[in-house]
Amino acid sequence: MSDVDLDFEPPAEASGSDTFPMRAGTLRRNGHMLMDGVPCRLTDVSISKSGQRGQSEVNLTGIDVFTGERHEDMHPCAHDVEVPVVVRTEYLLAGITGGYLSLVAGPTGGTRGGVALPEGALGQDIGSDFAAGRDVLVTVTRAMGREAVTGHRAE
Question: What is d(CA 51, CA 58) in angstroms, rounded to the nearest whole number?
Fold first, then answer.
């Protein structure tokens, strides 16, 4: 027998890719799609009738899940488009230190930090609700290797 080392590292992470292909004609409102390189939530999906060459096209309008910017795109129904894997998780806010949030996961009770307090009205609302002594639940959205607080509710 030879002395061949058969141990190797897998070429990608076990968690998989940040995107997956999907037929443009199967996209629906409130779904997600990669538009101009950013993950967007689809707000309007309309299919135009077939044109001169017989291809129907889908007209898409989406909102960036992190910044709220509007994007528009058009694709033939039969072509594949990239759909991002978007994960939304709700955490209980435990504290705010130096512009970063300390969060507690719901059923597991694990803590995590390193999530920045958002700027603007959302960040001010979170800060004022927490300072008032309310239980604040924040929604953290993660997609394409990026994460941000995108919503909150106070109880």
Answer: 12
User: What is the chain's percent helix, strand, coil content, to nearest 5?
Assistant: 10, 50, 40
Three-state DSSP class for residue 53: coil
117-143 pLDDT, tens per residue?
A: 998 899 999 999 999 999 999 999 999
- Residue 14, both tokens: 């076990």
Instruction: Record the pTM.
Output: 0.78
Output b/e per residue, 38-77; b: 16+ Cβ within 10 A.
Answer: bbbbbeebeeeeeeeeeeebbebbbbebbeeeebebebeb
Cα–Cα nearest to 147, from 84, 87, 93: 87
